[in-house]
Amino acid sequence: MQVVAVRLTTQELAALDAAAVKHEMSRSEAIRAALAHFAA
């Protein structure tokens, strides 16, 4: 795996963290899941 830097607003980061907690995922897992959904 590679590391990718992404800039998020405070609101985007809060939404990401909330989604990750809701789905019992890490931030990275939540981002990968969102990207998989977007690319589908």
Reconstruct the topology from this structure.
Layout: H1 10-22, H2 27-39
Helix pairs in contact: 1-2
What are the segments in which pLDDT stays under 50 over at least 5 consecutive residues?
none
Mind telling me the C-alpha Rg?
10 Å
The biggest sheet amounts to: none
| End-to-end CA span | 20 Å
Mean pLDDT: 97
What structural class do helix, strand and pairing data support?
mainly alpha
**Number of E-type strands:** 0
* Percent strand: under 5%
User: What is the count of DSSP helices, taking H or I runs of 4+ residues?
Assistant: 2
Order of helices and strands: HH
The level of helicity is 55-70%
* Shape estimate: globular
Number of domains: 1
In words, what does this structure look like?
The protein is mostly helical and 40 residues long. The protein has one domain (10-39). It is 65% helix and 0% strand. The chain has 2 helices and no strands. The radius of gyration is 10 Å and the shape is globular. The chain starts with 9 loop residues before the first helix and ends with a helix.
In short:
With 40 residues, the chain is mainly alpha-helical. Helices cover 65% and strands 0% of the residues.
Keywords for this structure?
65% helix; single chain; 40 residues; globular; mainly alpha; 2 helices
